[in-house]
Automatic annotation (TrEMBL):
Segments forming a coiled coil: none
Alphabetically ordered keywords of this record: Kinase, Transferase
Cross-referenced InterPro entries: ATPase_NBD, Euk-type_GlcNAc_Kinase
Protein name per UniProt: N-acetylglucosamine kinase-like BadF-type ATPase
Species name: Pontibacter virosus
Length: 286
């Protein structure tokens, strides 16, 4: 059996694939080594993952995760996996590679992640050949759920929202200045908190103010990321993530403005990753 992880900052989907290409799925809290150290990551494995894997004979682990963008960060996850699964080989890669494999398969294209955070790359059908730097929550994450939440909360705190919308938001989340500041500046993963407001924005997406924020969010992403790739007007631009999936109508409008052709928009890369690794298993057993 192999274990495949697709991890974002909010949740991690784990798939167990057996020799017959059958699979099961379990879910845990999201993991991002940009914000969590090895001990905190291991604690998630110990309390949430291992109890769901009793009597599973895991032979290898393939982990794709947000924040796994350097050998140092990858090692935090690798060490936690080695503690949780001693003696079992693990392979830790960026969630961007997972997105490219799931979205593009063996064909060239642009792969984009729009979930709690955001990222993108140019993929040649085998490898990532270009990546516009993702600056993370504080300086970037354009197009993401956290960026949407930031736009909304700033407008609320600066008294820029229509009264009815502001009242609805305040009552829904019991917002206070101190509560917001504590959640943003006192949390290990502030992007998670801000991304929770994306649900409210989806429900209110026909409101002109919210509609403009959603458009601005995607416009920033195309301007600062997608438009920087060579051939962005000819190659398919593909998206994975809850924000891309649930706000796809606006995303398509912005893509049209930039002369881009959208390939596929999916909520999760899991099915594509399962297919990729099933093919890998078949090749290894042939």
């Amino acid at each position: 059996m192999i274990l495949i992880a697709d991890s974002g900052s909010t949740k991690t989907d784990w798939r167990i694939i057996d020799a017959d290409n059958e699979y099961e799925q379990v879910t845990t809290t999201g993991i991002n080594p940009q914000y969590l150290d090895t001990d905190k990551i291991y604690s998630i494995f110990e309390t949430e993952l291992l109890p769901q894997l009793k009597e599973k004979n895991i032979s290898a682990i393939y982990y794709y995760g947000a924040g796994c963008s350097s050998p140092e960060r990858n090692r935090l996850v690798e060490d936690a996996l080695s503690r949780a699964f001693p003696g079992i080989p693990n392979h830790v890669d960026h969630d961007l590679l997972a997105a490219a494999r799931a979205l593009c398969g063996h064909k060239p294209g642009i792969a984009c992640i729009l979930g709690t955070g955001s990222n993108s790359c140019l993929y040649d059908g085998q490898n990532i050949i270009d990546n516009v730097t993702s600056l993370g929550f504080l300086m970037g994450d354009e197009g993401s759920g956290a960026y949407l939440g930031k736009l909304l909360i700033k407008a609320y705190m600066y008294r820029e929202l229509p009264e009815e919308l502001a009242t609805s938001l305040k009552n829904r989340y019991n917002l206070t200045k101190d509560g917001v500041l504590d959640a943003v500046y006192g949390s290990d993963i502030p992007s998670q908190y801000l991304a929770t407001f994306a649900k409210f924005m989806h429900e209110k997406r026909k409101n002109p103010v919210i509609k403009e924020m959603i458009y601005e969010n995607f416009e920033e992403f195309f301007e600062r990321h997608v438009s920087k790739y060579e051939g962005f007007g000819e190659l398919p631009v593909n998206f994975v993530g809850s924000i891309a999936f649930h706000f796809s109508d606006t995303l398509k409008l912005v893509a049209k403005k930039y002369g881009c052709h959208i390939g596929v928009i999916i909520s999760s890369p899991s099915e594509g990753l399962i297919k990729y690794h099933q093919e890998l298993l078949n090749m290894q057993s042939a």
